[in-house]
Amino acid sequence: MTASPYPPPPKATLFYQFCAVLVRCVGTGYFQWTILHQDRIPLTGPVIFAANHVSFGDPPLIGGAIPRPINYLARESLFQPPWFAKLIRSLNAIPLDRDRGGPAGMRTVLSVLAQGRALLLFPEGTRSADGSLGGAKSGTGLTVIRSGAPVIPVRIFGLHEIWGRKRRFPKPGRIIIKFGEPLRFEKERTEAETASRARTKAIYESVTEQVMDGIARMQPCRDITHFG
């Protein structure tokens, strides 16, 4: 057996494990969820899960559907007060300054992936107002290329109808969480190593578009069509 080139990531806290079990119970009972193609998820090594964003429920529900601990990006303001910061850090949340971003945030993200961890990203950056896919933020392609991690597109169906931006609490309903085929971008990474600045920027933009296209192309199974 070949040794992993990555250091073993920190084990999930007991609180994280408890919350994961709780989310799975809620997903099964309250949301009647269906999880499609869970077998496409790498169980070890760095991986980026890139998902559409329609609800506050996206992070816990997608995280609960993934059979390994994952890290989440959360806006920096959520880490105040300190007691709440401690709580969400125990759930593998990572603070990110959405307004300034910059090298420090990118270093944090790349460090997490370099440790062989899994990271959930929402390329749109914010929740959709109507459930449709929006445009992706510019940092998505840069993160994918610099990290070297494969990308698993994820799409969640039905959650906007039962827990959209205008709803404070979710109503009972039915949702689907679907995982796409891994996207690896090996050709783009090789080219970016020697490309000009302008060409590198174009590569980042192309990768971002391909990630969003991977999310957009996923559809629910034909026999699972009713939501809400």
Report on this model:
With 228 residues, this protein is an alpha/beta fold. It has a single domain (14-216), classed as Glycerol-3-phosphate (1)-acyltransferase, CATH 3.40.1130.10. It has eight helices and seven strands. The protein has helices spanning 14-29, 58-65, 82-89, 102-114, 139-147, 159-163, 186-192, 197-216, and strands spanning 34-36, 47-51, 71-75, 93-96, 118-121, 151-157, 176-179. Strands 1-7-6-2-5-3-4 form a seven-stranded mixed sheet, sandwiched between helices. Helix 1 (14-29) packs across helix 2 (58-65) and helix 5 packs across helix 8 (197-216). The chain is globular and about 50 Å long.
Rounded average pLDDT = 89
Total count of helical runs of at least 4 residues: 8
Order of helices and strands: HEEHEHEHEHEHEHH
Q: Spatial order of the strands in the main sheet?
A: 1-7-6-2-5-3-4
Q: Terminal Cα separation, in Å? A: 47 Å
The rough form would be described as globular
CATH topology: Glycerol-3-phosphate (1)-acyltransferase
Question: CATH class, anyone?
Answer: Alpha Beta
**In angstroms, what is the radius of gyration?**
17 Å
Q: Largest sheet at a glance?
A: 7 strands, mixed
The CATH architecture would be 3-Layer(aba) Sandwich
Structural class: alpha/beta
In short, what is this structure?
By secondary structure, this protein is α/β, with parallel strands linked by helices. The chain is built from eight helices and seven strands.
